[in-house]
Every structure is written in structure tokens, then in C-alpha cells.
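Researcher: Quick test of sequence recovery. C-alpha cells follow.
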């Protein structure tokens, strides 16, 4: 560990919760003799969009030996402090009013920040120890506030304000911090302490059930990657959870995750059934926890290391996000949180979601991964017609590969074996002194062949580098599972997606080649009436039920402030409605299916 003289120091204070302001002081004992370069990241790993966090710096100044020091801004997120012989101190205020898992948020109820939003990087000092003094807000109203973070304590007791330490800048910005009054849930997973800090009022929270379910999920994942030793890659893990009226999201870190959820998704004391909301929350926890291995340690080469000043392009997000999306619900099954029929229902939902979008026929998952910065994270009303989700279709690619590997090796190998091999070769030593390196595209595919003994190039060509639909029906058939298409032919439809806006029915998206598209309607149009009857977002389907496929209806809609009329010829509802049905099959298929769908239940 570096000495105090060799460290970079920060002090962060929630100075004005009402105005959502953090005061931050950066102290560099030995600044660069030619001038100290400073910068704030432009994006945060795990969320692939340039967000320009420096725009939230309200004011900034520098001093040395008690005197004001020259600080010049070079670009949108970079500053240069003039050369100085003494200690350099940079003070700045950060506006924190982003209620998400990506940035920083502060008010009278809690404070939260990611290091990428608040900690300037001292160039040339990144490898030094970084010490942070996290201070409490002043006032009697904040006496009950505590701190939740996976940062190591230096001069602070667990969950208390004080001094924390990271080995380097990369580690510093990979441990978000929550402060406030939160409920703390603790459990151990294969001997490793785990916590969930829940901020926000959640009446009758069943913390025991939550801890028990999370323990199952975490232990299942640890055992997946280290089946013999059951060794986790971190010494402690923290789920930082903000419960709100309506919300959903997560962002992974090396020893923690930041989550936001609807409070009604959390379990209630005395309620034994598994609600859709609670299942979804556990799936979110499972997803972010799986990232502890897949993307935080096993990384694409483009992320080793990250360049946080600009976009880092990779064609592999379908693997790092898509495979994680496959395993998140799969782990719920394996851990016994859900049963096989429930898991198949979740797969049906994913299949239908992918098949609903015509964008899947125009963009491959490799292209979707590369274009995440400009397309997936910047979706507009035409997104369903133009892009495919590397999360959703990527999870189906993982499913397809898993089923093919199990089938063609007669159950001797599975996707698990490939993930473990990736972990051993690319992930296990990533944050150790000897360091690690990232995965190239060709290395990933070569490893599949090496570990399985199969030649899978044709599968990758189809699933990753083409826009053809995945042959899931055939893959399922070998397990004695039938993929049925149960769409309701003959049901009249506009083939649009609508949303409620101020009591009106607004077209959120118009699906390509559908009746609304052919009639001239566009996303953003507000439907007023069909054949002179008022339309709302809740009665649209009911109005259309009075008609047959082929009927022509007159649709009145506002585009901007102009009333327009459209003659729409109704067509059959083409919304995918696939279902998975387990059939009685020969023993070999039943055996493969049982091995795939095995769980603790």
C-alpha cells in the first residue's frame, strides 16, 4: 500500500441536500511538475452512453499553499492546473439530482453517488492509493444517517462516515456509495458476507425471505464458476437498493450493485406467493450479481482497460449482457426460487419480445452491440423497426448455444463449461497484481470449440452475424419441448404500440408494414376517434373487436395541433404468442431436459 504521502485524497460532503449539492475537495501532495491534468469520466461502465458527467460541476477552483492557483479548462471534462511546488488542492461542487443508478442524487432523504460522477481523475496518479473522507451532512435531521458501500474502511467503522480507501482510481470509481437511513439485510453466501441496504419506506418488508432468496441465488452463482472451492471473487458484496413508487434498473460493480425498484416489488411479511414484481426484482439482483464475473472480470478486450473519455466499441455485448440475461432467470430456476413451468413462461416472454420487433431482421446482435452507444441507448419511436436488443436476443443466443452443446455432446458439456473456462482464463486474475486481459471475438468462438469439442462456426454465423431467426424450435424438440405459435389469427389490429398521455391514446410506435403504417399514421399521433367513437389507451382493443379483418375504419388523430383523418384497413393481429410445452418423449430427451431444468426444488 502506498504511504499517505504517495496517495491521492478526496473529501466529499453533502453540503446542501435541499439544493442537491456535494462539495468535493481533491488533494494531490505531489502534483505533476509540468502541470496537473484533471478530468471527470464521460460515461460509466455498464451503461454504454456518453453522459458528460462534468456538466454537473457547478463551480471549480484550485489553490496551493493557501493561495489561489491557476486552473484552465481544456475541454468539456478536462482541466489543467498550472505547475506548483507545493500541495495542490482542487475544490468543486457537484449538482446531484439524477434519480438513477448511473450518476448521483442528493436530497433530505438520502445521498447516493457513483465515483464517475464526483471524483476527478488526477492524470499520472491513477495507480496510487486513493483515500476518501466521506462526511455527514450537518444538522439534527441527519443524525440517523449511515453509509453503505463496498469500499474498504481505513478510518471508519462499517456503515459509518469516515475515511475509506481504494488501491487505485479504477477501484475508487467502481464502488458506489449510499448514505441515509436504510434497512440493512445481511447474509453469508459460501462464507462471504453479503448485505442489502434498502433506502426508502417499505412497510412490512419481509427481510428474512429476501435474505434467504438472495442467499440461494448468490450461492448458486458462486458455485457455477467455482464448483469445487466455492470461492467468490470478492471478500464482501453489497446490494445498494433504492425503493420508490415506480422504478426498475441496476448497474453492476466489482463488489456491489446499485439497484432501483418499485417498493411493491419487494416481499411483504405474511405473503407467501411469488408475485411477478418480486420475481422480477430477484431476476434483477441475479442479473447484476452475475456481472460480478461476466463483464466486471471477464471483459471484452475493448474494456481492458476502459477509456472513460470516449466510446469504447465492442461487438461482444450480446455475450456479456445477453449471456447474463440468460443466466439471471436460469439461476432463479437452479436455486429453487422458481420452478420449471415458471421458467419456461419467462423464456416465452423473451422469445415473444424478440419476435415482435422487425428490427431483428435488419440488425445482427454483433451490430447491435457495436451501435449500443448511438442506437440501443438512444432509442426513439422507430427503434422496434430498426434495432434488436443484444440483451434479449443475446439471451436467446445463449439459450440456443446451451441447448445445442447439451444435445451434440449428449449432455457431457454445456454453456456452464464454457463460462467456467472463460473465468479461469480471463477473469479469475483480472484484479490481482498480475492483472488480466480482455476477450477478443475470435478467442471467444475458439474457446467454445475447444471446451465443447464441437465446431460451432455455423451457429455463430447464423445467431451472431446474420439477421435470420434462431432455430429454437429444433433445439427445443431434442428436449421433448414443443415451441408453439398461438397468435390469434383473425383478431383485427392496427399493429401499433400505444401509451397514455394526458388521458389520450398516443401512438408510441407504428410497426412497419402494418395497417397503421400503410394508412399513413405515425408515431406521436394522438388517436381521437375510430368511426366517430372516442379512443382511449384502455378502450382501443375493445373498439377494434367490433370489426373484422379487412374492414376499413376511419381514424381521426391529431398530429401536432392538426386534426387528420385516415382510412385504415384492419389486418390480423401479428403479435407473436409463442408457448413452450413439455411433451412425453423418449428417455434420452427426457434425461437431457431434466439435466437442463434441474433445480433445488
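Model:
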Amino acid at each position: 500500500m502506498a504511504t499517505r504521502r504517495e496517495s491521492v485524497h478526496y473529501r466529499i460532503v453533502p453540503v446542501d441536500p435541499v439544493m442537491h449539492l456535494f462539495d468535493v475537495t481533491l488533494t494531490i501532495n505531489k502534483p505533476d511538475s509540468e502541470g496537473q491534468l484533471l478530468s471527470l469520466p464521460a460515461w460509466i461502465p455498464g451503461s454504454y452512453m456518453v453522459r458528460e458527467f462534468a456538466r454537473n460541476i457547478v463551480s471549480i477552483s484550485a489553490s496551493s499553499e493557501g493561495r489561489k492557483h491557476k486552473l484552465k479548462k481544456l475541454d468539456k471534462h478536462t482541466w489543467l492546473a498550472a505547475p506548483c511546488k507545493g500541495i495542490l488542492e482542487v475544490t468543486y461542487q457537484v449538482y446531484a439530482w439524477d434519480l438513477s443508478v448511473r450518476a448521483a442524487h442528493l436530497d433530505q432523504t438520502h445521498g447516493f453517488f457513483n465515483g464517475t460522477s464526483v471524483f476527478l481523475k488526477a492524470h499520472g496518479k491513477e495507480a496510487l492509493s486513493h483515500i476518501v473522507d466521506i462526511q455527514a451532512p450537518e444538522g439534527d435531521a441527519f443524525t440517523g444517517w449511515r453509509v453503505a458501500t463496498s469500499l474498504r474502511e481505513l478510518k471508519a467503522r462499517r456503515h459509518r462516515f469516515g475515511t475509506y480507501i481504494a488501491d487505485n482510481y479504477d477501484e475508487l470509481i467502481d464502488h458506489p456509495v449510499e448514505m441515509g437511513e436504510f434497512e440493512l439485510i445481511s447474509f453469508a453466501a459460501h462464507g462471504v458476507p453479503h448485505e442489502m441496504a434498502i433506502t426508502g419506506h417499505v412497510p412490512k418488508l419481509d427481510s428474512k425471505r429476501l435474505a434467504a432468496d438472495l442467499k440461494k441465488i448468490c450461492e448458486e452463482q458462486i458455485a457455477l464458476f467455482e464448483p469445487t472451492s466455492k470461492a467468490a471473487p470478492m471478500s464482501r458484496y453489497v446490494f445498494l437498493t433504492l425503493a420508490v413508487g415506480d422504478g426498475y434498473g441496476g448497474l453492476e460493480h466489482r463488489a456491489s450493485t446499485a439497484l432501483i425498484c418499485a417498493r411493491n416489488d419487494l416481499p411483504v411479511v405474511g405473503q407467501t406467493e411469488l408475485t411477478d414484481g418480486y420475481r422480477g426484482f430477484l431476476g434483477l439482483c441475479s442479473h447484476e450479481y452475475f456481472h460480478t464475473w461476466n463483464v466486471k472480470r471477464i471483459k471484452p478486450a475493448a474494456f481492458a482497460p476502459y477509456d472513460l473519455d470516449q466510446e469504447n466499441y465492442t461487438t461482444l455485448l450480446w455475450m456479456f449482457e445477453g449471456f447474463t440475461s440468460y443466466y439471471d432467470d436460469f439461476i432463479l430456476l437452479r436455486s429453487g426460487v422458481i420452478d420449471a413451468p415458471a421458467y419456461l413462461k419467462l423464456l416465452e416472454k423473451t422469445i415473444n419480445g424478440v419476435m415482435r420487433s422487425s428490427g431483428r431482421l435488419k440488425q445482427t446482435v454483433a451490430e447491435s452491440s457495436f451501435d449500443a452507444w448511438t442506437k440501443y441507448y438512444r432509442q426513439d419511436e422507430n427503434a422496434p423497426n430498426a434495432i434488436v436488443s443484444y440483451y434479449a436476443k443475446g439471451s436467446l443466443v445463449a439459450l440456443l448455444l446451451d441447448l445445442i452443446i447439451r444435445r451434440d455432446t449428449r449432455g457431457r458439456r454445456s454453456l456452464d463449461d464454457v463460462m467456467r473456462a472463460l473465468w479461469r482464463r480471463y477473469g479469475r486474475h483480472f484484479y490481482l497484481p498480475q492483472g488480466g486481459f480482455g476477450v477478443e471475438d475470435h478467442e471467444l468462438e475458439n474457446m467454445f470449440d475447444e471446451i465443447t469439442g464441437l465446431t460451432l462456426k455455423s451457429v455463430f454465423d447464423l445467431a451472431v452475424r446474420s439477421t435470420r431467426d434462431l432455430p429454437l424450435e429444433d433445439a427445443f424438440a431434442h428436449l421433448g419441448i414443443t415451441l408453439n405459435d398461438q397468435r390469434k389469427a383473425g383478431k383485427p389490429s392496427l399493429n401499433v404500440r400505444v401509451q397514455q398521455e394526458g388521458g389520450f391514446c398516443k401512438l408510441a410506435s407504428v410497426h412497419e408494414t402494418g395497417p397503421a403504417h400503410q394508412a399513413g399514421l405515425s408515431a406521436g399521433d394522438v388517436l381521437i376517434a375510430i368511426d366517430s367513437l372516442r379512443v382511449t389507451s384502455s378502450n382501443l382493443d375493445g373498439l377494434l373487436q367490433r370489426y373484422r379483418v379487412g374492414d376499413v375504419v376511419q381514424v381521426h388523430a391529431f398530429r401536432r395541433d392538426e386534426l387528420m383523418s385516415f382510412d385504415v384497413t384492419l389486418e390480423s393481429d401479428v403479435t407473436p404468442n409463442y408457448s413452450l410445452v413439455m411433451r412425453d418423449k423418449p428417455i434420452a430427451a427426457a434425461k437431457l431436459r431434466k439435466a437442463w431444468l434441474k433445480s433445488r426444488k
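The chain has 17 helices and 31 strands.
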